[in-house]
Amino acid sequence: MASSTTLSLLLLLLLLPFSHSTTFTIINHCPYTIWPAAIPGGGRQLNPNQTWTLPINSTTTGSRIWARTNCTFNNSGHLHCQTGDCDNLLQCQTSGKPPNTLVEFALNQFNHQDLFDVSLIDGFNVPVEFTPVKGCASSGARCAADVTAQCPAVLRVPGGCNHPCTVFNNEEYCCFSGNCGTNDYFRFFKSLCPGAYISPSLETGQASTLTCPSGTQYRVVFCPN
After folding, report:
1. Would you give the DSSP letter of residue 188?
2. What are the residue boundaries of the structural domains of the chain, listed by start?
3. What is the homologous superfamily of the domain 20-222 according to CATH?
4. Contacts of 186 (CB under 8 A, 6+ apart)
5. What pLDDT does residue 76 have?
6. Separation of alpha carbons 21 and 91, rounded Å
7. What's the half-sphere exposure (Cβ side, CA atoms, 13 Å) at 2?
């Protein structure tokens, strides 16, 4: 019969594959301070050229990373941001208030693949690039254009550009049924960021959703060169 020590070691070995983490290296190349946030992961301040190394459990799904801009602390210590605010907290527990450019991912899914994209479904505030560091053939996803500068007036807000669903909240722009058509606003976003997810109506075979083998490490760069 195996000793209790041997059994404990066997149990530890069985659990190890489920405790691995995926490292996301988040870099601020913007000429201004941002406050990146992650669900899960919380948030922090990043001055220009600073880096945040964020380990995330390799079975995490439904996750996102985004940047908050023009943030200030009030007298009670709460953080309020012009874009991407999450209930006035530094350590985000909920998604950010639109507009914010999203990095979305689900780790270790079907056939041990990570799924990821850059999404404008919550609008745009900061250019971003999401790339695997090594171990993956994909070149990643990006939205590096200055969308805010060209944003249609009806979608423009201080610091960013709203997705039309945020503004109009109807089937045409939100695609609640998943079977809506396209329109000038969708085409506007897609023309500037062709690799970004905009709406189900623009996706053919999930063209904007990319894959890498589970265990790949990633880099998120705000304001990529």
Report:
1. H
2. 20-222
3. Thaumatin (2.60.110.10)
4. 164, 198, 199, 201, 202
5. 78
6. 20
7. 8
